Amino acid sequence: MNTLVIKKEDLRHNIEKIKDFVSKSGKDDQGNPVKIIAVVKGNAYGLGLVEFTRFLIDQGISFFAVATLEEALQLRKAGIQEDILMLSSTAIKEDVETLVKNDIIITIGSKEDVEIADQVGKEQAKKIRVHLKIDTGFGRYGFVYSNRDGMIEVLKSMENIKIEGTFSHFSLSFFDDQYTKTQFQRFIDVVEVLKMNEMETGMLHICNSSAFLKFPNMHLNAVRIGSAFLGRISFQNSIGLKKIGYLESQVAEIKELPKGFNIGYSNIYTTPQNMKVAVIPCGYMDGVNVKNEKDMFRTIDKIRYLAENVKSFFKKQALYVKIKESNCKILGRVGTYHVVCEMGQKDIKIGDTAIFSVNPKFVNANIRREYR
Fold this sequence. Notes:
By secondary structure, the protein is α/β, with parallel strands linked by helices. The chain has helices at residues 8-24, 41-45, 49-58, 69-77, 93-101, 111-124, 148-156, 177-196, 209-214, 227-230, 299-315, and strands at residues 3-6, 35-39, 63-66, 83-89, 105-108, 128-135, 143-144, 161-167, 203-205, 222-225, 246-250, 253-257, 262-263, 269-270, 275-280, 320-323, 326-331, 339-342, 353-356, 368-371. It folds into 2 domains: 8-230, TIM Barrel, CATH 3.20.20; 246-371, Beta Barrel (Lyase, Ornithine Decarboxylase, Chain A, domain 1).
């Protein structure tokens, strides 16, 4: 059985490093410690939504953020009572009613969001807990930062909504410092306009994991941490985070192949001599050799990555799986559910443990997660 292994010691190390970095950034403008909002969307970046949330609670984290209604309800059904913010806004009344019923903090970012939330609050005779989303240049949820008058007009009409926070989201903080600073200034300008109009802003937060590490001056009242917990960010981290998670499988078959024998799809690898190989039931559906796509970058960035890919092709960078503390080269393409690796003269037997370096968020949700 394949297993995604999460080492508790390394995970605690990352959490403490993040807490320490937060404390070193100082306090917010009210003199309070900067709060950590743990983002556990996407099955907690692959670490298991409920398991990881409970682990974070044990480490003193008490505020969580999710992307979907289903994620929020899963946490509540598991008995998680801490604050949960749904980062995506919605004007679908049935969804808002369900969120409010389960005491989930909702996001409002449009006239329709406000109207529905206000209506639900009136019908239930209660103040709806919300965070206000400002779109500073992402193009998804949130009031567009430049339409301040329209936003103020809508917000002043609400009667059954309590704003407990205001936030935005960076689109390229791991790569483009200048645009990140532009987004930040847009956000601060909107916050000032809200305050000038005597609107409550609540907790202010804009930093994701990348911005959290790169721009301590942008921490405001809270920071949203997701990938940093895993130690998997898009640039060299400066606080000593460890990479979390590896995939564990077993050698399922051992065989000898003759010289000139093809291995895997497309026949891209042919044995140069008689070879002894091991077959392992682990493939790209399990997260092996799956990486972030490059379609998020601009044309110039795509050209850079294309150049890197060309260099990698000529360097013939190999993939390896670790068996009995030895790195064994993977031969041919990674299959859907299997790989073949070279054994050489290594003393490898059927049933031996095989370890793959993987990013947990790409590991199939059906794969068992084990905290050790």
